[in-house]
Write a structure and sequence with these properties.
This protein is of the alpha/beta class. The chain has one domain (about 15-230): Nucleoside phosphorylase domain (Rossmann fold), CATH 3.40.50.1580. The protein is built from seven helices and nine strands; from the N terminus they run E-H-E-E-E-H-E-E-H-E-H-E-H-E-H-H.
């Protein structure tokens, strides 16, 4: 076991889904996985392993923000040998043509975080997704008929921003949407030699003001869940 994950070696699959909400992890395990067993309840950050179409896969809640997913993804890779990690979460759209309930994939993740300081780099690092997982995502998208937008996203350390025009400046640089975890996941995966990809369902919209409920975010974004499972087990 590791500091924050109460699992034994071999209880976590090499491929894993990472929802921020532990109850979303529970929902996926109960509705999509066969023979799912809970391997972690520490801090109520539930983790499960089962099979999807006969392929072993795990799902682990990570909490909110880069420090939290940074802890879980680091331990999953370094202590449990996880090789393929897919964040499945929610994001806020910056553009009219990216609508609520659309799916976005972060090819790269801009950030306002200092997370990269942990790696003592002599410049500005650009966190990027795994090309291998992106190609599998494209194949799964075509097979399932579930489209997605691909491009740059923003991983923000702040949910509430007192500066009203901040999001417009990111939108001007063609950043699709904002979330709070992908950049740290991409950096950990790069450093530790794993594959990572973040896909998010748009849950709220900066342009139109449209929002979804907490229950909808937890249980109704099933297209994203199906797409991620087909990708991670391909």
């Amino acid at each position: 076991m590791s500091t924050h994950i109460n699992a034994e070696k071999g209880q976590i699959a090499e491929s894993i889904l990472l929802p921020g909400d532990p109850l979303r992890a529970k929902f996926i395990a109960e509705n999509f996985l066969t023979g799912a067993k809970c391997y972690n309840e520490v801090r109520n950050m539930f983790g499960y392993t089962g099979t999807y179409k006969g392929v072993p896969v795990s799902v682990q809640g990570t909490g909110m923000g880069m420090p939290s997913i940074g802890i879980y993804s680091w331990e999953l890779i370094s202590d449990f040998g996880v090789r393929n990690l897919m964040r499945i979460g929610t994001a806020g759209s910056y553009h009219k043509d990216i609508k609520v309930r659309d799916i976005v994939a972060g090819v790269s993740a801009s950030t306002n975080s200092n997370y990269a300081e942990a790696f003592d780099l002599p410049g500005t690092y650009a966190p990027c997704a795994s090309f291998e997982l992106l190609m599998k995502l494209e194949d799964a998208s075509e097979e399932l008929g579930i489209p997605f937008h691909a491009g740059n996203i923003l991983s923000s350390d702040t949910f509430y921003d007192t500066r009203e025009d901040t999001w417009k400046r990111w939108a001007k640089m063609n950043v699709m949407a904002v979330e709070m975890e992908a950049a740290a996941l991409y950096m950990n995966a790069a450093y530790l030699g794993a594959n990572a990809l973040a896909i998010m369902t748009i849950s709220d919209h900066f342009v139109t003001g449209e929002e979804t409920t907490a229950e909808e975010r937890q249980e109704s974004f099933t297209d994203m869940m199906k797409l991620a499972l087909e990708t991670i087990t391909a």
